[in-house]
Amino acid sequence: MSVVSWGFYFVHVTRIRMKTMTCRELGGMCDTGLTAETSDEMMMKGMAHLEEAHPEMAESIKAMPKDDPAMLEWSQKFMADWASAPEMS
Ligand SMILES: [Zn+2]
Prior knowledge:
This protein is an alpha+beta fold. The protein has helices at residues 3-14, 39-53, 55-63, 69-84, and strands at 18-22, 33-36, 87-88.
């Protein structure tokens, strides 16, 4: 393998694909930007942000059953928004 292709390999595997979504895009109420590598991480960061910035909203989400239609609708919208969110380079 040449030096050039090793360099390409290194850049390729170490590139971290981060995506940013705002609190509002996650169904929240402010424009705080949250950055994550995976949809799971984004969900966790979204929840952590809610607990910090909008605790009353975090409480009402926790009180909701997991199979509540509103929750299912939210997670479908979230996955679509996550997929279409631009990657940071
Ligand atoms: Zn917020």
